[in-house]
Design brief:
The complex is a heterodimer of chains A (114) and B (108). Chain A has 114 residues and is mostly beta strands. Chain A is globular and about 40 Å long. Chain A contains no helices and 11 strands. Chain B is an all-beta fold. Helix content of chain B is 0%, strand content 59%. Chain B has strands at residues 4-7, 10-14, 19-25, 31-37, 43-49, 52-56, 59-64, 69-74, 83-90, 96-98, 102-107. In chain B, strands 2, 4, 5, 9, 10 and 11 form a 6-stranded mixed β-sheet that branches. In chain B, strands 1-3-8-7-6 form a 5-stranded antiparallel β-sheet, with no helix packed on it. The radius of gyration of chain B is 13 Å and the shape is globular. The chains are: A mainly beta (114), B mainly beta (108). The A-B interface holds A 2, 31, 33, 35, 37, 40-45, 48, 55-56, 89, 91, 93, 95, 101-105, 107-108, 110 and B 4, 30-31, 33, 35, 40-45, 48, 86, 88, 90, 93-101.
């Protein structure tokens, strides 16, 4: 257990539905990342927060995806109008102060879109 | 071509064997990470290095910045080492770019 938690661990939804995932970081960590991992591949970067500011977004993050970190603590990732191609593991990772660049990963949320 | 390439993609070893997993990258990096992922998804950071060599228990990681290459070695492998090993490089700020992973199975 790295101290990073994600909820839910598994989500099955029908195409076209909206889903929201939550990540709770290690409390003193100000950096938070979202990644997506499809079967047989390494994770791909989606977006990065430093405190409440979203500093970087991948072009993978289409307009159906939105991420927030309103108080600089937990973060949510919402996918609107889900498509079968959105089926993947969504991983959250957090990190501490700049210069201490290790990232601690949560257990992930596995999304299946039927 | 991916920015991070790992080899081999799959590796089966007998318990006790010395294992090497390789990682090559094509861009300038500020650090390289080796990660372990078990079935079910959880990822654990094994090493973060920017030069030289690090050792932790039976695991050794090396990096050659000039050749843009890193290796992860496992000595005296054990079935509990079976997992996916992922190489990731940090480019610029904080973003990680990941390899596809090496699936390791150690048989008893």
């Amino acid at each position: 257990d790295t101290g990073v938690s994600q909820d839910p661990r598994h989500k099955i939804t029908k195409r076209g539905q909206n889903v929201t995932f939550r990540c709770d970081p290690i409390s003193e960590h100000n950096r938070l990342y979202w990644y997506r991992q499809t079967l047989g591949q390494g994770p791909e970067f989606l977006t990065y927060f430093q405190n409440e500011a979203q500093l970087e977004k991948s072009r993978l993050l289409s307009d159906r995806f939105s991420a927030e970190r309103p108080k600089g603590s937990f973060s949510t990732l919402e996918i609107q109008r889900t498509e079968q191609g959105d089926s993947a593991m969504y991983l959250c990772a957090t990190g501490g102060l700049a210069g201490m660049n290790e990232q601690f990963f949560g257990p992930g949320t596995r999304l299946t879109v039927l | 071509k991916n920015e991070v390439e790992q080899s081999p993609q799959n590796l089966t070893a007998q318990e006790g064997e010395f294992i090497t997993i390789n990682c090559s990258y094509s861009v300038g990096i500020s650090a390289l990470h080796w990660l372990q992922q078990h079935p079910g998804g959880g990822i654990v950071s094994l090493f973060m290095l920017s030069s030289g060599k690090k050792k932790h228990g039976r695991l050794i990681a090396t990096i050659n910045i000039q050749e843009k290459h890193s290796s992860l070695h496992i000595t005296a492998s054990h079935p509990r080492d079976s997992a996916v090993y992922i190489c990731a490089v940090r480019i610029g700020g904080n973003k990680l770019v990941f390899g596809a992973g090496t699936i390791l199975r150690v048989k008893s």
